[in-house]
Amino acid sequence: MKKDLLAIADLTREEIYLILDTAEAMREIGLRPIKKVPTLRGKTIVNLFFEPSTRTRTSFEIAEKRLSADTLNIAVATSSVLKGETLVDTAMNIEAMAPDMIVLRHASSGACHLLARICKSRIINAGDGMHEHPTQALLDAFTIREHKKRIEGLKVAIVGDLLHSRVLRSNVQLLTRLGADVCLSGPPTMVPAGIERCGVRVLTSVDEAVVGADVIMMLRIQQERMQGAFFPSLREYFTVFGMTAERVRRAKPDVIIMHPGPMNRGVEIASDVADGPYSVILEQVANGVAVRMAVLYLLAGAPEMD
Ligand code: CP
Question: Within 10 Å of residue 292's Cβ, how many Cβ atoms?
Answer without folding.
Answer: 28
